[in-house]
User: Fold this.
Amino acid sequence: MRINNVLSKIITFINILLLLLIVYNLFYFIKYPYLATDSGFYLSVARDIYQGSQYFTEIASSYNPLAIIIIGLPYFFSDDPNTRLFLLVNFIVMIFSAKIFYNILKENFRNPKQINFLFTALFFLGYLIFEGKYVLLEPISVLFQLFAFYYYLRSKASQNLFCYLIVGFFISLSFFSKQFGLFIIIPILIDILITNKKWFKKCYVITIGFSIPIALLYMYYAYYGVSLEEYIMYILGKGIEFDKGIGTGSTIGIIDLLLSFTYFTLFNFYILLIPIAFFILREIRRKESFIFIFSALVSLSVLYFASYFHYYLYILPYFILLTAYVSQFLKKQSHSIAFTVSLLLSCSLLSVYSYLTNNKAKDNYNNQNESLIRLQNIIPEKSLVYIVDPSKAYYFLGKYNSINPSKIGYCFPNYFYTKTICDNLNKGNFIIVGPDRLNEYVKELKIYNLSEIIIENRKYTIIEVL
Assistant:
């Protein structure tokens, strides 16, 4: 990208603004660490793992274990860690991701350091905006994806087969963090088939690297009597016999998808220049662009399953990398100005969104803590609880256990029929449910006690099985 003195000052201003936004968002989230619903699920599972339960066989989960184990590292040092310690683990993951992302930019594109820093700052801020600040699986899965991507780009330059082995190894770690991480193998294999002559050998070496973690984990489970078929079903997320099997994204429709993608585009307005640049600038259309195009397009496949904000964590890095590739060819001043204006627009929208969300941070955090106090006055710690409608964060915050760890776990309500849940309830168990679904559960129970409670400004009912 060609930068004159004026544009250089504007880029410097944007970099400073991005840094301030990063600090601003981190400050508010560390000060008011509101726990997201998914975070409560993962941390509750991590708690059970570190208390000695075996993943998959004794803890029902459709997710792979690696990211949950990493998330739960504070349990290694304490039975009741401060919530901010889990955020610290997440922050360390983000730092490593930003570092490897910067290395990809530095080693593969002919952009000035100023521009590489800008793209890295956009990536880091995007993590915070798209819910990466919460304790989730996606940031860890994406970290391993980026390691795989980095070593693949290095292997293309060096033709070192050992690098291909490492690529497969990190893809496997990404898959073991969350199954969506496997998608990175698609653009890599396509690029190998199109741009490499010795494609079979390289694909074979990647397969060996990918198989190493899978084989090691299978050896562990085989020792405890798990068959190969059971193990494969576990790691593919099919180890639980769901009644519905429609998952947590079942209520997400086309409107939600379009709305979330609109937010993503507005916050990253510069990506709209990518197709224009490919149309105008012939020199961009090289074999070197294939891997960046494929990875960006394939990353969108996660939206087939759901369009949650945090799913865009799988998409963001590859669209920024494609933008970084394109920016190398912006030689004319008019092109650089258009790119800079798009960045300013994105930063403006990111600033407004950061202010609006952080302005509610204190109230959300206080409401969650106040709700927890009211909840624990009715349901004591260590109780067996099934949460239907309110946030699954209360599994972790309330120190509640699953009604049936090996069959139900802490799964989301869309996985099971109401009757299945009620059949797994025993005397002294609790259900927390909203008014819309209260009658569903009451009809399935014989003797119970009802208590109303306000959780985060909404009315819910606690059902105690008698």
About this structure: Residues 63-333 form one domain. The chain has two domains: 63-333, 382-465.
